[in-house]
Amino acid sequence: MNPLTSCPLEGIVVSIFLFLAVSACERHSETPAAATPSVPSTPSVHKPFRIVFKSYDGNPKTDKIEKFSFQINTLDLRQPSDFLKLGETVPNTLLKLKQFSFKERWNEEIKDKVDVSELTLQNSKTGKTTVLVFNQPTDVWAIFSPVPNAEK
Question: Which residues, including other chains, have CB under 8 Å from residue 19's CB and lie 6 or more apart?
Answer without folding.
Answer: none
